[in-house]
Amino acid sequence: MSSSKRGAFIVIEGLDRSGKSTQASLLHDRLQDRQDAGATTPKVVLLKFPDRTTAIGKMIDAYLRSESELDDRAIHLLFSANRWELASTIVAHLAQGTTVLADRYAFSGIAFSARKGLSYEWCRAPEVGLPAPDLTLFLNISPDVAAARGGYGLERYEKEEVQKGVRRVFNKIGRAVQEEGEGKWVEIDAGKTKEEVAEELWKAVEPLASGVQGSISGLWEISLIPGRDTQGGT
């Protein structure tokens, strides 16, 4: 990989049961296999949000399992804090040339909280400055199809009416990402077979597989890696 390149930050978003975790794992393995085969592909790490292993993550886990109750604003801030716990790690990986895959990210936090009726701008505010993805892959699936998949309904938000509202906010976020230049937002039809979806994702990811030029910016902010200009120089 060229010294002027850094790792790519790729996020997979979507409704519950749209196949995010499955596709994130498949994509991670495909990138890893390319590296093992000697391709000019940087190292790759896979992160999942929320990270339920941290102290904050355990509080979130109990909430999602309906084992505890929290104010809507409080749980939104906990989700955001959970992402901030790993923000410096993400930046460090990218600066070292490692590709970072994330299964869910800030956009999910905004979508689920705004759907509850909280202000969109208020929901977005705690995310300002988080590392901005180079590519967000949104797995688009109708809530009724998602509801037919195994395991649906086991957690708090896995209800059709909730997912329909979340989908509307995701659509707003996708338009805003494109308009404001916060990386690239690509919609993928997640109603297809697992293999077909994986190929669609790969088409979008492959151009970034060997790293990207330019700085890694903060969401709705400025560069977070000093010394790297928009041409990838150091």
Task: Provide a short characterization of the protein structure.
With 234 residues, this protein is α/β, with parallel strands linked by helices. 44% of the residues lie in helices and 14% in strands.
Describe the structure.
Its EC number is 2.7.4.9. Keywords: ATP-binding, Kinase, Nucleotide biosynthesis, Nucleotide-binding, Transferase. Pathway: Pyrimidine metabolism; dTTP biosynthesis. It comes from Suillus subaureus. This is Thymidylate kinase. The chain is an alpha/beta fold. The protein has one domain (5-213): 3-Layer(aba) Sandwich (Rossmann fold), CATH 3.40.50. Helices cover 44% and strands 14% of the residues. The protein has helices spanning 20-36, 55-64, 72-84, 87-95, 106-115, 120-124, 143-147, 160-180, 194-205, and strands spanning 5-6, 9-14, 44-48, 99-103, 135-140, 184-189, 212-213. It has a five-stranded parallel beta sheet, sandwiched between helices. A two-stranded antiparallel ribbon has the order 1-7. Helix 5 packs across helix 8 (160-180). The longest helix is centred in the C-terminal third of the chain and has 21 residues, at 160-180. The protein is globular.
- Outline: globular
**What's the total helix number?**
9
CATH class: Alpha Beta
Structural class: alpha/beta
Q: What is the number of independent domains?
A: 1
Specify the helix fraction band.
Answer: 40-55%
CATH architecture name: 3-Layer(aba) Sandwich
Low-confidence parts lasting 5 or more residues at pLDDT below 50?
Answer: 227-234
The SSE order reads: EEHEHHHEHHEHHEHE
Which fold name corresponds to the CATH topology?
Rossmann fold
- CATH H-level superfamily: P-loop containing nucleotide triphosphate hydrolases
Number of strands: 7
% residues in beta strands: 5-15%
Largest sheet: 5 strands, parallel
